[in-house]
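Trying the structure run again after the queue cleared.
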Amino acid sequence: MKIAWIGLGTMGEAMAGHLLDAGHELTVHNRTREREEALAARGAGRAATAREAAQGAELVCLCVSDSPDVEAVVLGADGIAEGIERGAGAVDAPVSGGSEGARKGQLTAFVGGEDAHVAIARPALEAFCRSITHLGGPGAGQAGKAVNQVLISGTYAALGEGLALGEKEGLPLEALVQALGGGAAGSWILENRSGNVIRGSYPLGFRMELHLKDLRIALAEADHLGLPMEVTRLVAEQAQRLVDAGYGGEDSSSLARVARGEIPS
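Done. Tokens:
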């Protein structure tokens, strides 16, 4: 398939690389043009603008940080909309799994869109996802990802608080985590992020500032639907404190900094 890929950040570059590995014909564009070089060395074409990348593509994939970036890349000058033909469909397919999942090609995709459009996008998604779930029409993928972010936000916060309590009690944290993993408290986050909390070091991962962005999206939808979402609002407040304190570039497990009293209230 002839695919254009816009956005080569921590996750986007790895995801685009899997498309090359799967044999797709790939053209890439990134605002910081140097990020295109590694994929170009592997055979990808380079486009000077999003519009140029989209011209003639069967599928255009977009992986950028936030809604204003999406709007600029799609609808701005030299954007995707200027390079695609009329009648093109759209699929929203946000992913979960962080930078590790992107590197390993083991992401989870929450997909929204019409059946025919999802069918076109599926071969590309299969190159970097181990789970692809079509949840409904346009927007359903974004809603599914919002639910995911709500669930993991509370888990990250609880991980930090639980291990902070264990630490204060003088428990051996590695042994404690092993015991917790065998019971009802076991989770992907416990298995893969407890080490960050124990070491007090929070490499990527998934940036806290992006997690906060996702929580704001979820809370805006909750406001629209009349849901209180009290726990999620509390976690979003903690995430905002971390970002304000300069920790927005750390992994989301850095919520443990709040649990340990490292961040002023």
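Residues 140-168 form the longest helix (29 residues). Worth checking whether this holds up in the mutant runs.
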